[in-house]
Amino acid sequence: MFVVTGRPLSDHFAETRSPIPDYRTVALAIRQPAAVTAERVARRVDEQFARGVVDEVRGILASGIPMTAHPFSGLVYRQVLEYLRGVRGEAETRALIVSENRKYARRQLIWFRKEPNLLWLNGPGEQTAVVDAALDVLREQGIAR
User: Fold this and answer.
1) Given phi > 0 = left and psi -120 to 50 = alpha, else beta, which region is 64?
2) 0.90 cut: is pTM over it?
3) Confidence band (pLDDT; 50, 70, 90) for 1?
4) Whether the Cβ atoms of residue 76 and residue 54 lie closer than 8 Å to each other
5) Please, which residues have CB within 8 angstroms of residue 122's CB and are 6 or more apart in sequence?
6) What would the 3-class secondary structure string for the chain be?
7) How far is Cα 145 from Cα 139, in angstroms, rounded to an integer?
8) What is the spatial distance between Cα 108 and Cα 137, in angstroms, rounded to a whole number?
9) How many CB atoms lie within 10 A of CB 81?
10) 42: how many CB neighbours lie within 10 A of its CB?
């Protein structure tokens, strides 16, 4: 931003106004055990394969989209494309996708830990105790009853 405007990003943020000024917001974040994240990532990869991610990539390629298209550089698509090119087998591709997604989740968590305004809740978001804790936070903030 500085290169384009000659002004530091903090100046732009200082001038930023909320698009929803009549609403109070509270940023909540979920912290769950690494084992839970690992299991969910593995399950999601299995679901992506069951729903046909390989055929999806084949169809995209068949429609004329080149292998060099930007979306193929992202997680899952990149590895599936490599699988289709014979770089590795399906089991190894699935394992690689799981591994890379787990690493990505860890990087996200590290990044979010630096956010000063997040209120952290412990456990998977669908657990009753976590939902209750979120409601407690919202009540404390005067947002929920």
Assistant:
1) left
2) no
3) low
4) no
5) 31, 32, 130, 133
6) CHHHHCCCHHHHHHHCCCCCCCCCCCCEEEECCHHHHHHHHHHHHHHHHHCCHHHHHHHHHHCCCCCCCHHHHCCCHHHHHHHHCCCCCHHHHHHHHHHHHHHHHHHHHHHHHCCCCCEEEECCCCCHHHHHHHHHHHHHCCCCC
7) 6
8) 23
9) 21
10) 17
Using one digit for the tens of pLDDT, what is the confidence trace for 2-53?
677 888 877 877 788 888 888 888 899 999 999 999 999 999 999 999 999 9
Largest CA distance in the chain: 57
